Amino acid sequence: MAYGIALEVWGDYALFTRPELKVERYSYDVMTPSAARGILESIFWKPAVRYVIDSIEVLNEIKTVNVRRNEVSSKIMSKTVKQVMEGSKDGQLYLSTSDEIAQRASVILKDVRYVIRAHFELTEKAGKTDNHGKFADIIRRRIEKGQCFYNPYFGTKEFPLSFRHYENKRQSFYEGVEKDLGIMLYDLEYGEEINPYYFKAVMKNGILDISNSEVYR
After folding, report:
1. Whole-model pTM?
2. Which of 17, 31, 34, 191 could hold 187 in an S-S bridge, CB 3.0 to 4.6 Å?
């Protein structure tokens, strides 16, 4: 059994980074399924619930802008933190931004608005009293009240978003248009290593249908 969700999300900017372009960041044209799932999980997350993204509808015209941002060129590794906690004096738990700062270019999306259509399924971690109706009511109430565990964002945390139930039918800018978006990131599988999955993305009438997509490693 599945419960349907239709969530409208919008914001001034978005950056869905292509994994092959990590230094000079370049956004996909459309939000990735993994980013959409992350938005839903920011609103309500529980081990008993697994979200499945069915489609992403692009309401606004795809527009990009070039920006330059200050970033640090290194990061503190988890093994360094562990060593310091164990008493080692070799590791340092700080970064000097004046030494590590680097200016990098990014191509980001602007004035974005999407409709995420998804459903959730119960996992093996669901309890005896857990059921679809219970979680459906919780998710509905949290969306109506604008509640979330953390502020959802479009790809990176500096690009926050707004959300609400999608109720009014709005025509997509790409109504009557078919657009090949190429190979896109589908999701990441976390284990001993991080394994990416991809799919062939084709947008028809502004809708990126993911439900029947073939996923590649």
Report:
1. 0.85
2. 34
